[in-house]
Amino acid sequence: MALRAALRSRSGLSGLLSQRSSCSSDIRMCVSPLLVPQERNYSTPPKIRVEFDQSTGVAVMHMQSPPVNSLSLDFLTELCISVEKLEMDKSCRGLIITSAQPKVFSAGLDITEMYGKSPEHCGAFWRSVQEMWLKLYGSNMVTIAAINGSSPAGGCLMAMTCDYRIMADNPRYNIGLNETQLGIVAPFW
Ligand SMILES: CCCCCC/C=C/CC(=O)SCCNC(=O)CCNC(=O)[C@H](O)C(C)(C)COP(=O)(O)OP(=O)(O)OC[C@H]1O[C@@H](n2cnc3c(N)ncnc32)[C@H](O)[C@@H]1OP(=O)(O)O
């Protein structure tokens, strides 16, 4: 109910939709180099599952990368491709992002991507982080983070890039930025 209300309350949704259609050709032209089809390892299950309801125009994106939906390069690439596909579909007007994992929305950046990797890999990884938040923040869809678990650091960033956030009321679930505690600094961009 709350999600539907949030979608309905978005003023000028029709204007938004016409805005989407007017720039949809641009979107098609702006497929970023990051999203050029990558070698897909079909032996691993998809990390993102999208359910699109044609009758409401609302897509639900389930993050399903056990155990904690950490934001790895593969995960972020898959997420960005999914967002981009929905963005190009003019009949999709709203996107709800949620987690299929119990108790965790997203644990933030995958820490293993930041340790012992080549500078090239680190560059690709941080570009994919940037790509993720730019895609969500700049989306023409109404975006909602349905935060059904803890969402530290990069998970918080992802939620913040959405138009609306609704968080499950559970004192065990935390959200916020903990980079200082971790001793890392997000690179300048
Ligand atoms: C201008 C603003 C710029 C902002 C830029 C954004 C920058 C963000 C930086 C980051 O995101 S760095 C990552 C920060 N994240 C964390 O510190 C989260 C740490 N994890 C937790 O707090 C907990 O794991 C949890 C998410 C609350 C879940 O707790 P739970 O008890 O359910 O599970 P665990 O037993 O702790 O973990 C299970 C399993 O998952 C591994 N893991 C957890 N988090 C990460 C992670 N971020 N990356 C990679 N792996 C992670 C953990 O090690 C366990 O693995 P194991 O093999 O089963 O031991």
Written overview of the protein:
It comes from Pogonophryne albipinna. It catalyses: (3Z)-dodecenoyl-CoA = (2E)-dodecenoyl-CoA; (3Z)-decenoyl-CoA = (2E)-decenoyl-CoA; a (3E)-enoyl-CoA = a 4-saturated (2E)-enoyl-CoA; (3Z)-octenoyl-CoA = (2E)-octenoyl-CoA. It holds the Pfam family ECH_1. Its EC number is 5.3.3.8. The structure is a single chain. Helix content is about 40%, strand content about 15%. With about 190 residues, the chain is of the alpha/beta class. The strands form 2 sheets. A 5-stranded mixed β-sheet has the order 1-2-3-4-6, with helices on both faces. A two-stranded parallel ribbon has the order 5-7. Helix 3 (about 75-90) runs parallel beside helix 4. The longest helix has 19 residues, at about 120-135. Mean pLDDT is about 85; it is low at about 1-40. Bound molecules: ligand LOW37U6P. The site of ligand LOW37U6P has 20 residues, from helix 5 and helix 6.
Alpha-carbon distance between the two ends:
38 Å
* Main sheet strand line-up: 1-2-3-4-6
Average per-residue pLDDT, rounded, comes to 83
By CATH, the architecture is named Alpha-Beta Complex
CATH superfamily: 2-enoyl-CoA Hydratase, Chain A, domain 1
Number-wise, the strands total: 7
Oligomer: single chain
Net shape:
globular
Please report which band the strand proportion falls in: under 5%, 5-15%, 15-25%, 25-35%, 35-45% or over 45%. 15-25%
Number of domains: 1
Percent helix among the residues?
Answer: 25-40%
Low-confidence stretches: 1-38
CATH topology annotation: 2-enoyl-CoA Hydratase, Chain A, domain 1
CATH class categorisation: Alpha Beta
Class inferred from helices and paired strands:
alpha/beta
Number of helices: 6
Bound molecules: ligand LOW37U6P
Q: What order do the SSEs take from the amino end to the carboxyl end, as H and E?
A: HHEEHEHEEHEEH
Largest sheet: 5 strands, mixed
